């Protein structure tokens, strides 16, 4: 387990807010501020400079997408600030807009259902805090149901691998999931990056992986 | 019932009910008009006198509205004359309460036309009605009743104070002459009643502009109804999202934690695991349900994103070409649900393997086409789904066109005039 994280939490439903505070505490992370609306979130981040922001999409006063808007504004101000957004919406517009901030690292978009899978949820929190990218499997699944350019060029296996990359898995984890060798996964990813016309390997590999996910979401 | 004017031209006029309807109409005029005159005079005098101490002013106001009930009664009385009762020219108040009613009535031209008619009826028309009745049915009746007159007078009498008769033979002749006179006079009687009815109709029936105003009102109320439905959907969506959905998330979280605390195996662990999975399933179903009631992506990102999402979810693969600005909320909502219904129909009935969705906004119109390669034969008359959609689009002045020959393919096209935001 990574070191203790200092988290700012924004969630307007009190029951859930308290629950999340308890949940994170149980895994050794401290919620330094738990707030109920977008303005308070911005203020709390300015005050505490947390390791991670965990926020709901829909919040007062308008009960539209204030939480997401606040997250986007925070990412614009501090591109390196890890933000994990909790949502009730599978629609990819939300996730795509979030992943477009900064260089797409240190962000996550999860359905609230995932909170119930306690260990996986905490793992996702830690992954985002350490600069990873996490997209809810359900959102990814929704995307896969439709074949789009340029993804049309990918084989079914490559799409499968890309979906797992989008969920933030490492090559090793993907190899275990698909019961293939890690080298095979690396080859698939190479093919994917090539087919999506992503820049050659002189950049950091994570960066290209993120770009692949973005291509995937924007398509 | 045929109108009096039409019956007059009919050769069998005298044998039908028309002459009696005419006479009845005029007699009714007298019965309404005479008491009306009394009422006018009483209210007018009392109001004028009492207005010195201010309490009379409401009475005078009441006088101004006297035409309304008179108009209502007179429109009903038109039925025997013109064949049907005249419709009311008045509008229905938008708000409940006497004040709203009063304000609306005093502002309507129809109210003042009715008052004019009531004044005319009280001062001119009912005496005229009475005179016409007397000169036709009355005169003929008196002549025809000569035998009765002779019997009551004894040996001789003057019919209509003119002709002296002194035998029952002459009296019988008078009866015949009276009946003949009646047959002739029933024509001017009918003509007068028809003209009188036409005058009443002119003053009391709705004018064309009032018909138009009423149509506009109906259109507006239909739009309000749709807006109310829309608001209700949003409210239900919000309640479910803020209530049940949040609590259920908290519940799955509690169960998730309980799973960590419980022993890894054994009946307790199994029970908790089952409950946890069940709660997770319910959460998925609830999310789909809420999305179906009102997709939040429509409000947050607009029609383009929502249509893209609808295409993502479609059971039949959909190619999309969507190029849209943000549009007014009601337009986005109506168009979205129309496309969802169209895609659902494609998946359910057409047997198509592919569909194509294009959406664009050009020259102030939203234009959406949904085509599939299925078997066709979609009939709006059979399912209420498509008809309901057409109705909903009609509120926004939109149109829905479906071309679906048997054997396919089906092309559905909708257009709504609207500005880009």
From TrEMBL, chain A:
UniProt entry tagged with the keyword Glycoprotein: no
Location of the HTH luxR-type domain: 147-219
Pfam families named in the record: GerE, Response_reg
Bilayer-spanning residue ranges: none
Residues recorded as bearing 4-aspartylphosphate in the entry: 56
The Response regulatory domain, residue ranges: 6-127
Aminoacyl-tRNA synthetase in keyword set: no
Molecular function in Gene Ontology: DNA binding
GO BP annotation list: phosphorelay signal transduction system; regulation of DNA-templated transcription
SUPFAM superfamilies per record: CheY-like
Assigned keywords, A-Z: DNA-binding, Phosphoprotein, Transcription, Transcription regulation
Protein name (Swiss-Prot/TrEMBL): Response regulator transcription factor
The organism of origin for this protein: Streptomyces sp. NBC_00119
């Amino acid at each position: 387990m990574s070191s203790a994280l200092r988290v700012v939490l924004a969630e307007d439903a009190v029951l859930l807010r308290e629950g999340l505070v308890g949940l994170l505490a149980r895994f050794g992370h401290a919620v330094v501020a738990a707030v109920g609306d977008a303005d308070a979130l911005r203020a709390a981040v300015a005050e505490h400079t947390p390791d991670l922001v965990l926020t709901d999409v829909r919040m007062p006063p308008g009960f539209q997408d204030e939480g997401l808007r606040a997250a986007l504004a925070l990412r614009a101000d501090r591109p390196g600030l890890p933000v994990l957004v909790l949502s009730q919406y599978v629609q990819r517009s939300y996730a795509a807009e979030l992943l477009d901030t900064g260089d797409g690292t240190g962000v996550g978009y999860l359905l609230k259902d995932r909170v119930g899978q306690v260990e996986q949820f905490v793992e996702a929190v830690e992954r985002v805090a350490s600069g990873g990218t996490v997209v809810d499997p359900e959102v990814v699944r929704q995307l896969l149901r439709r074949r789009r350019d340029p993804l049309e060029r990918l084989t079914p296996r490559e799409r499968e691998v890309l979906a797992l990359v989008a969920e933030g898995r490492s090559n090793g984890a993907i190899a275990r999931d698909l019961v293939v060798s890690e080298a095979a996964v690396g080859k698939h990813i190479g093919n994917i990056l090539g087919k999506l016309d992503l820049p050659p390997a002189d950049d950091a590999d994570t960066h290209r992986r993120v770009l692949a996910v973005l291509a995937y979401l924007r398509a | 019932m045929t109108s009096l004017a039409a019956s007059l031209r009919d050769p069998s006029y005298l044998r039908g009910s028309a002459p009696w309807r005419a006479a009845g109409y005029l007699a009714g005029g007298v019965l309404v008009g005479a008491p009306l005159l009394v009422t006018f005079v009483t209210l007018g005098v009392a109001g004028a006198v009492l207005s010195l101490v201010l309490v009379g002013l409401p009475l005078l106001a009441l006088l101004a509205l006297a035409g309304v009930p008179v108009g209502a009664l007179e429109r009903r009385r038109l039925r025997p004359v013109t064949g049907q009762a005249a419709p009311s020219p008045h509008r229905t108040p938008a708000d409940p309460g006497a004040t709203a009613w009063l304000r609306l009535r005093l502002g309507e031209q129809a109210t003042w036309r009715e008052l004019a008619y009531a004044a005319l009826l009280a001062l001119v028309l009912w005496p005229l009605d009475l005179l016409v009745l007397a000169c036709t049915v009355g005169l003929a009746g008196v002549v025809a009743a000569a035998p009765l007159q002779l019997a009551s007078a004894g040996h001789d009498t003057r019919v209509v104070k003119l002709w002296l008769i002194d035998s029952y033979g002459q009296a019988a002749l008078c009866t015949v002459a009276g009946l003949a006179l009646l047959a002739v006079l029933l024509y001017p009687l009918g003509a007068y009643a028809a003209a009188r009815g036409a005058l009443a109709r002119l003053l009391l029936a709705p004018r064309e502009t009032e018909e138009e105003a009423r149509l506009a009102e109906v259109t507006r109320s239909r739009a309000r109804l749709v807006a109310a439905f829309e608001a209700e959907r949003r409210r239900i969506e919000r309640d479910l999202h803020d209530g049940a959905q949040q609590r259920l998330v908290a519940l799955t979280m509690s169960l998730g934690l309980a799973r960590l605390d419980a022993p890894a195996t054994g009946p307790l662990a199994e029970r908790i695991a089952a409950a946890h999975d069940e709660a997770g399933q319910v959460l998925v179903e609830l999310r789909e349900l809420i999305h179906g009631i009102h997709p939040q992506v429509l409000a947050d990102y607009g029609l383009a994103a929502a249509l893209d999402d609808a295409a993502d979810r479609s059971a039949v693969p959909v190619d999309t070409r969507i190029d849209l600005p943000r549009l007014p909320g009601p337009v986005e909502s109506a168009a979205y649900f129309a496309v969802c219904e169209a895609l659902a129909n494609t998946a359910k009935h057409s047997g198509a393997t592919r569909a194509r969705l294009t959406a664009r906004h050009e020259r102030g119109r939203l234009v959406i086409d949904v085509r599939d390669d299925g078997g066709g034969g979609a009939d709006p008359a059979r399912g209420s789904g498509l008809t309901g959609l057409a109705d909903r689009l009609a509120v926004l002045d939109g149109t829905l066109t479906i071309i679906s020959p048997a054997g396919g393919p089906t092309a559905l096209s909708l257009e709504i005039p609207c500005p880009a935001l």
